[in-house]
Design goal:
alpha+beta
Length: about 100
């Protein structure tokens, strides 16, 4: 299986405990979505010493095979959920100030 680049930022002395990964690829007439995570804690020393790319295997959690029509519906519903989450976040931020 070819490598897929996943990028996340870490701050000095603050390494995230995990990073979620979702890979989406066409599969014949369907779409395959693999969900997984990367555990940066296993690379703590490499990450602190490296300025370049680091390779790590992601741990698979779930695989979903869906039709293009269902994928479009999923995108629409995800966008709606993101919009609602952003509105709530902005409302909470404005109440805090």
């Amino acid at each position: 299986m070819p490598d897929a680049k996943v990028q996340f930022k870490s701050h000095q002395d603050c390494i995230p405990s995990y990073a979620n990964v979702a890979l989406v690829n066409p599969l014949s007439d369907d779409i395959i979505i693999d969900f997984g995570f990367v555990d940066p804690l296993t690379l703590r020393d490499s990450m602190q010493d490296s300025q370049g790319e680091i390779t790590v295997d992601s741990r698979p959690l779930a695989r979903l095979i869906i039709s293009p029509a269902l994928a479009k519906q999923l995108i629409s519903e995800l966008q709606e959920a993101l919009d609602i989450a952003n509105e709530r976040r902005e409302k909470n931020e404005s109440q805090d100030t």
